Amino acid sequence: MAKILLIVAVFAVVYFIMRGYARSVAARPPANSPGREDVMVRCKHCGVHLPRGESVRAGADFYCSEEHQKVNGP
């Protein structure tokens, strides 16, 4: 009888640990959620897509390099 209770207790502990882990994983935002720095933007001059953090910004427009920003100019 003690062995059965021990087995049930072990399964209960494993169940609660796994349930807590599943909840913590579900609560995390996805890696590609908006608002992160790795959002892709498009260069206004050539159309290439690049991460927002690597782009050159002029007003509401994004460029892949300073040369393209100068070509389109403010």
Protein architecture, described:
Strand 1 (40-42) and strand 2 (49-51) form a beta hairpin. This protein is 45% helix and 16% strand. The chain is rod-shaped and about 80 Å long. The strands form two sheets. It has a two-stranded antiparallel sheet with strand order 1-2. A two-stranded antiparallel sheet has the order 3-4. It has helices spanning 2-27, 66-72; strands spanning 40-42, 49-51, 56-58, 61-63. The model has no long low-confidence stretch (mean pLDDT 86).
List keywords for this structure.
single chain; 74 residues; alpha+beta; 2 domains; two-stranded antiparallel sheet; 2 helices; rod-shaped
Topology:
Elements: H1 2-27, E1 40-42, E2 49-51, E3 56-58, E4 61-63, H2 66-72
Number of domains: 2
Label the structural class. alpha+beta
Name the poorly predicted regions: none
Gross morphology: rod-shaped
Distance between the termini: 82 Å
Classify the helix fraction into a percent range.
40-55%
| H and E order | HEEEEH
Radius of gyration: 26 Å
Q: What value does the average pLDDT take?
A: 86
Characterize the biggest β-sheet. Answer: 2 strands, antiparallel
Number of helices: 2
Q: What fraction strand?
A: 15-25%
Report strand order across the widest sheet. Answer: 1-2
**What's the total number of strands?**
4
